[in-house]
Design brief:
Length: 148
């Protein structure tokens, strides 16, 4: 065994060749600190600036998920087949982004958790609540059904 960047690695041979198993510190409870791994191996690393960028990234992902949940892009009277395919594409993107936010939170980093929560809150405030809706006029119906 060797120690590489304070992470213990082991090597094992199998029928397909050499496999390297990383024994990285897996947190099973929330922790605070900028030295973490979020979504991608080695990202953001130990840099405070990259950690801040990761928090902003998670925040923006959560806001986009809320926007997709409440946006109304499809025009009334549009071709039903084209509208159905577009709706399916929007649903797929929303589901993928929701899973990315969930996986980021599963890093158990407290800052990432708060960034996701605040991103969803700001997104709902801006796109889903009555705070920023125009008074009067017809109520727009979102293109996607509500999340379950």
């Amino acid at each position: 065994m060797k120690m590489v960047n304070m992470v213990e690695t082991t090597s094992a041979w199998n029928r397909t060749g050499l496999h390297v198993h990383r024994k990285s510190p897996m947190h099973m409870s929330f922790y605070w600190g900028h030295k973490s791994e979020i979504l991608f191996s080695g990202w953001p690393g130990s840099s405070s600036g990259m950690y801040a960028l990761a928090l902003i990234f998670v925040f923006v992902l959560a806001v986009i998920v809320e926007w997709l949940s409440y946006c109304s892009i499809i025009k009334p009277g549009a071709n039903k087949v084209a509208a159905g395919f577009f709706q399916t594409a929007m649903h797929t993107v929303r589901a993928g982004l929701r899973y990315m936010v969930m996986l980021a939170v599963m890093s158990f980093n407290g800052g990432v958790f708060l960034a996701a929560i605040f991103g969803h809150a700001v997104g709902f405030l801006v796109f889903g609540s009555k705070a920023f809706r125009k008074s009067g006029g017809s109520e727009k119906v979102p293109d996607l059904p509500p999340r379950k």
